[in-house]
């Protein structure tokens, strides 16, 4: 299967600071990338969909000014959590899809805000 | 009512057993069906991908889709302790911008 990487795998930051998470498709061109968050023992919650060169589409209830998404190339999308607070602590996972409907996930990033 | 229903388990089986995991759905517009395996604190791994109704086999895994009943299954033969994980079904409506609709996931424990 196709490979999607995320960096960093774990980040701790102080309340009020911003954190950037990178998502890369390593062996295919990702026309669409998705960002999810997941709380313990729960399923994935879609936050936003991004297409290369376009503005991201956010799900209802997700603050676009707080979770900035940039999909600048066909292999890279970034999620920036601005002015992070402890309630933003979660597991953030990206996924990517190319020309088919198969969707491949990254390994996830654990964010802890102190 | 959720669009996709999946029994959360946990499902506990002895090593070597055949495991059956299932999901039901309500929207007949779903055309693409996937099964993911997720280990704790890891991203989901795509196991099986099928389009419309039918069966698909890959090693110890078999995926079945019955669109008339709105029911999908994943069978795992000769289950191993390393198969212990959460299994998520997911599906996509055609022309929906590739957005996955997930089941809640079934926790599977394979006992040595």
3D architecture notes:
The complex is a heterodimer of chains A (114) and B (112). Chain A is mainly beta and 114 residues long. Helices cover 0% and strands 53% of the residues of chain A. Chain A is built from no helices and eleven strands. Chain A has strands spanning 4-7, 10-13, 19-25, 32-38, 45-51, 57-58, 67-73, 76-81, 90-97, 103-105, 109-113. In chain A, strands 2, 4, 5, 6, 9, 10 and 11 form a seven-stranded mixed sheet that branches. In chain A, strands 1-3-8-7 form a four-stranded antiparallel sheet, with no helix packed on it. Chain A starts with a strand and ends with a strand. Chain B is globular and about 45 Å long. The mean pLDDT of chain B is 94. Chains A and B meet through strand 9 and strand 10 of A and strand 4, strand 5 and strand 9 of B.
Compact description:
Chain A has 114 residues and is an all-beta fold.
Question: N-to-C SSE series of chain B?
Answer: EEEEEEEEEEE
Order of helix and strand elements from N to C terminus of chain A: EEEEEEEEEEE
Q: The biggest beta sheet of chain B, please?
A: 6 strands, mixed
Number of helices of chain A: 0
- Report the average pLDDT across residues of chain A: 93
The structural class of chain A is mainly beta
Mean pLDDT over the full residue set of chain B:
94
- Relative strand content of chain A: over 45%
Task: Work out the oligomeric state of the chains in this entry.
Answer: heterodimer
How many strands appear in the DSSP assignment of chain B?
11
